[in-house]
Design goal:
By secondary structure, the chain is an alpha/beta fold. The chain has 7 helices and 14 strands. A hairpin with a 2-residue loop joins strand 13 (253-261) and strand 14 (264-271). The termini are far apart.
Length: 274
């Protein structure tokens, strides 16, 4: 998925029943973004006729709107190399291998159409939290729920995790993430899974990451499955939502670390032992 900076995108918002198996088969199709109950189709040029035919071929589907935007309007694109803790994130994922400063790790991310370029405050909060956790704990396996571009899964692998499961309900996200795992040389230890619930991992692991949207975060933390993991990083919520989240957390967990950046929060929890 080679989306160019400043590329013009033509976006079709469609009401769909579930997640479509595939979008219209055209070379101008950049990607399909499911966000139930809607699906967004991204094209390099207007494809009104083809999209209308695709809608008619799927009973129950409805075209809600068409929008035009530059790629930079859709995705935050770094204009220069970013440093987050010990990570150096090149502005261009295909730039020649840099010589990082002492103690820095190069983290290559091509976001495509997917969230997670490294600029968002929640991503930065998670990266900094990961550094704290890996420096203070023995972490061998990690679940990254809502992996997006795979930035946190790749960072976990670079910090020393031996096995990472990267979960996302969006097949497009996992396609982008696989490319980023390859670019960072960690593809062999990261296992992508298409799912909408972290309960697909049934055993207790060292760490679970959940940098996800507020409605999904509140739904998941209200369920018991994630509590079996020793450590948890929760993010994707605002300062104003912190108290609400705290009221949803079980007494089985205690907060051990917190990051706040530009009005967004990241919290780290540890499960009580014994």
């Amino acid at each position: 998925m080679n989306v160019r900076p400043n590329q013009r995108l033509f976006v079709y918002e469609c009401l769909t029943s579930g997640i479509p198996a595939h979008g219209p088969g055209l070379p101008t199709l950049v990607g399909v973004w499911p966000e139930p109950p809607c699906t967004y189709l991204f094209f390099e040029r207007p494809e009104d006729q083809t999209v209308n035919e695709w809608i008619r071929a799927h009973p129950g589907f409805e075209l809600l709107g068409r929008y035009e935007m530059d790629y930079d309007q859709w995705q935050q694109v770094p204009q220069s190399d970013q440093q987050v803790g010990s990570f150096m994130i090149p502005a261009r994922s295909d730039s020649p291998a840099a010589s990082p400063q002492a103690g820095k790790k190069i983290l290559r991310i091509d976001p495509g159409l997917v969230f997670g370029s490294g600029l968002h405050p929640t991503t930065r909060g998670c990266l900094l939290s990961l550094e704290v956790l890996f420096s203070q704990n023995r972490i061998h396996n990690v679940v990254d729920f809502g992996t997006g571009t795979g930035i946190l899964a790749a960072a976990s692998a670079l910090l020393g995790a031996r096995q990472v499961v990267a979960i996302d309900c969006n097949p497009l996200a996992l396609r982008v993430a696989r490319g980023n795992f390859e670019a960072n040389g960690v593809r062999e230890i990261i296992f992508p899974i298409v799912a909408d619930d972290p309960a697909v991992v049934r055993c207790s692991w060292d760490l679970i990451l959940m940098n996800i949207e507020w409605p999904c975060l509140t739904r998941i933390v209200s369920q018991p499955h994630w509590r079996s993991h020793s450590l948890a990083v929760l993010s994707g919520f605002l300062d104003s939502q912190r108290q609400t989240l705290a009221g949803l957390l079980p007494p089985s967990h205690v907060m051990i670390h917190e990051e706040r950046h530009e009005g967004w929060c990241t919290v780290v929890l540890r499960a009580h032992t014994g």
